Amino acid sequence: MSTLKETLKQKIEAHRPRTTRLVKEFGKVIIDQVNIDQCIGGARDIRSLVTDISYLDPQEGIRFRGKNIPETFAALPKAAGSIYPTVESFWFFLLTGDVPTDAQVAEVAAEWKVRQVVPQYVFDAIRALPRDSHPMVMLSVAMLTLQKDSKFAGFYNSGKFNKMTAWESVYEDASDIVARIPVIAAFIYNLKYRNDKQTAIDPKLDMGANFAHMIGQSEEYKDVARMYFILHSDHESGNVSAHTTHLVHSALSDPYYAYSAGLNGLAGPLHGLANQEVLDWTLKFQEKYCKGVEPTKELIKDALWDTLNAGQVIPGYGHAVLRKTDPRYMAQREFCLNTPGLKDDALFKVVAMIFEVAPGVLTEHGKTKNPWPNVDAQSGVIQMYYGLTEYDFYTVLFGVGRALGCMANITWDRGLGYAIERPKSVTTDMLEKWAAAGGRELN
Ligand code: HAX
After folding, report:
1. For the chain, what is the domain count?
2. What is the pTM of this model?
3. 272 lines ligand 1 (CB under 6 A)
């Protein structure tokens, strides 16, 4: 058993009594209540999911295993010659909560080299799709195509299924998925945008660097990939992609079914597709409003109002939980400011100007509870600068990163034996009756 799996085993076994005790001794302790607004309005803020992998504070933003973004980047072992950690070290950290040693990172990296070999039938399935399919369709199909070799499904069907050890086969599938997904993403990119010019894996490289290598990117892009995959990995359990993955896996659907579903949720414009939408909005703004003139705050303000008056959302702004600027936005903005060419890039300047104007416009508009930018407002400009101009691919990049969080979470879901998810629905008649009575009589 690898050091990572052994560490995870010990952590899961040590954690189980905590969960068991909470349910047995404190199961009826009330931690939240639900109002009609939440019932109709997308279950916002209802505390009904448990994860120890990350926590999202509305003011502070994300913490991975208790560490904020700068602390996470500072604590983890770095890629050779880089100020950014490897994705491999982050995976160890996300799964166990421990900062790995260099030897432990090397072990994960060696394991991923074996796991990352993608069967030919996956590439054949992607190739069989219409070439103008959205790259998220290709990624989701690839995930489903791999399902036939799921170790969890194999274990379930073996007749020896055991709730206590089921997490081990989830871990195996999860590790295969996180190791293979960048290779699949690179294949999709090359197929769609580089005339099918495929580049073989370089076994000497870490995951982020290898992704850059496979899509024909520059040396500098290696850090972009590492940073991007880590920043997009996890945002606690309630967001659409993480929640969908958790929900589907709760029926004991294997990790391939679960993550394909999660990716389909990520492909929505209010969620992960927003990074594509931001680029689309910004380029259209330049085309329509800046014919021969420099962009100004006034022009941006006009364009934002035009979008709002047309009944559309400003992509990259607002959040269901956050009530301040997303620290993932700030981490990427800092990357831009610290990268000489990027700092002076015309598109970055527009995005920075939107940051100055949009919160005021959204506040005046008066609808959103959070007028500040989220992760998607800043991510595309970096990709664009490095030559990834095909912005319908950006959500695939998000999906590669998000696999880390979703897979770590469902491994723990099985480790702690979480139940099949099944909230209760009510009818409109019932809501009207309870509204008239001032509330539902409990008990
Ligand atoms: N532009 C215009 N209107 C906005 C808005 C925005 N950026 N953000 C919220 N609103 C509107 C909502 O549409 C809603 O309007 P209605 O009352 O007419 O339905 C109102 O303000 C209240 O919404 P809210 O409570 O502030 O926000 P929600 O929790 O309902 O929604 C969203 C959160 C992220 C979906 C929302 O802010 C949004 O649509 N933003 C733009 C799309 C986007 O950037 N999505 C990515 C979010 C981060 C993420 O998941 N990344 O993957």
Report:
1. 1
2. 0.97
3. yes
